[in-house]
Structures are given as C-alpha cells and as structure tokens.
C-alpha cells in the first residue's frame, strides 16, 4: 500500500504494525501481540495500544494528502485488557475540516473485544510530505 505513514513511520515497523487499508475516511491497522507488546501482567501494553491507535489515525488523516496532518490531541480510554492478538485499530473520520481532522479510533483484541477507544484530532499543515 502506498501510504505516507507506512513508508516513513519507523515506530510502526518496530512494533510490527501493518496498514491493512487507509483512506481519508477510514483506516485499519493491525499489530501482533508478542511478549514484547505485553506489560508486566501479560496483557497488551497501554503504550502499544496507544501507538496502534495513533498510527491508525495518522494513516487515515494523511491518506492521499500532499501536505501533512499532525496530532493536536488524543484522548484514550482503556476499556478491557488486551489478552489475545493480533490487535486491530479502526479509525473513522468524524470531522474532516479544512484545518482540523477528527477521528474516532477503536482498538480490538484478537477475539474482537473492544479494548480501547479514543478521539484523535489533527491539524492540516501546509508542510509537504516527503516522497
């Protein structure tokens, strides 16, 4: 998939994420749940979950753009422990204004259980995305 985030995001590769699909309206990103993605209790690490949600937001918000969208604010709510993988984040556009982009992002574990939800907002810059 030709997506700016997939091409340039090094943390995404480090955490073994994969962009399944990405349009300005919706993105799906998956991540395995290996021992390296788990916290000390054996559940999905909150930082890994947040990173997955952030990448899904970024993949959607920057899809098809020539200039970048950067994060303004992200509020996340952890609902249940992530027990099984892979984890899947789905970002859905709520508002796609000229400057502010807002997405509802839901994160599910491998059993389809909703484990986190967040609202992510970004600002449409005039900075060209690298090719």
Describe, in plain words, how this protein is organized in 3D.
The protein has 131 residues and is of the alpha+beta class. It has one domain (4-128): Thiol Ester Dehydrase, Chain A, CATH 3.10.129.10. It has helices spanning 4-8, 10-14, 46-61, and strands at 18-22, 26-31, 67-78, 87-96, 100-108, 114-128. It has a 6-stranded antiparallel sheet, with helices on one face. The radius of gyration is 14 Å and the shape is globular.
Short account of what is shown:
The chain is an alpha+beta fold and 131 residues long.
In oligomeric terms, what are we looking at? single chain
Radius of gyration: 14 Å
How does the helix and strand content classify structurally?
A: alpha+beta
Number of helical stretches of at least 4 residues: 3
Helix content: 10-25%
Number of domains: 1
Q: Poorly predicted ranges (pLDDT <50, ≥5 residues)? A: none
Basic shape: globular
| CATH structural fold name | Thiol Ester Dehydrase, Chain A
Please list the strands of the largest sheet in the order they lie side by side.
Answer: 1-2-4-5-6-3
Number of strands: 6
Q: Terminal Cα separation, in Å?
A: 14 Å
